[in-house]
Each structure stands twice: as structure tokens, then as C-alpha cells.
Amino acid sequence: MVISMQISYWMHSVDANGNEALLIDLVKACARYSLVSEGQQLHSVILKNDFDAHAFVQATVIHFYGCSGLNGLAQIQFRFSDKSHIASWNALLAGLLRRDLIHEAQQLFDDMPERDTISCGTFISGYVLNGCSDLASQLFFLMLNAGVDPNEITVASALSAVSESATFGSR
Question: Which terminal Cβ of the chain has fewer Cβ within 10 Å, N or C?
Fold first, then answer.
């Protein structure tokens, strides 16, 4: 309740002179604390003040809708986003995997024009969370073979996958 009131206060103080950094932080807070109504109101403020043209704002809104379980709205926002910016792809990918939509996530991953450490790490983590440890391990080794350097989160997810599967002995 207190967080909701703080977000409402900040939301009403944002006008055409506001900045996208503040809006990104507020939308992230809405995603983190499951404040769907406030997040949707912030999205309206973003649209009203033309902040939706900023790639990181777009990705954050996609992330918010994905975290909120509103994947249809996340996908609509993605369709209108800047596809040249990988953050939007990664945000939708994370939202799909969070809701156990592995087939849709795989299709999106296959369609990505480029993949980075975040893309691969997100998918590896999603595989682990959805009980597909063997696929997570396979993707990790494909990532390494493609020359994509893993970050700490990706390595932790890969280790979790290896510990849950029989792939450790076959490598």
C-alpha cells in the first residue's frame, strides 16, 4: 500500500518535462511489486508524454506486462516497439518464459535478429525453471561454442541445470 501511494505521488508529478529514467524506475517498481493498475496508469503517462519512442522505456513496459502475466499486452507493446533494440526482445522472452510459454519463447528466440548474453541467459534460466534442464545445458554449450560469454547469472543457471540433469557425465 505504501509503495502504491509513493508511485501514485511520483506519477502525478511527471509531466511533459519529466524524464524517461524516472518513468523506467517507476514502471520497474510496479512490475516488482505487482502493482498492475499503477503500471497501466504509468503506461498511459508514457503514451501521453511521447516517452514511448524511447527504446528502454518500450522494453520496460514490455517487461512490466510480462511480469504482470499480461502477455497479450506485452506482445502488443512488442509489436509497436523498436525491433532493432535487443532489450525489447529480451523483455518479451523473459515474460513468456516466466509464464511457462516455452514454445512461444522458443519461436521468439529463433526469430531474434541477434542474441546476447542476456538472451541466452534468460532462456537458460527459463528452461531450468520449467524443468527442462537438459535443454538448458545444451543451450549453454551452444552459447559457449558461438563465442557468447556467459555472465554470473547464466553460469549459475547452467550449474543448476547440470546438477538437475544427467548431462554432466556426458560432457
Answer: N
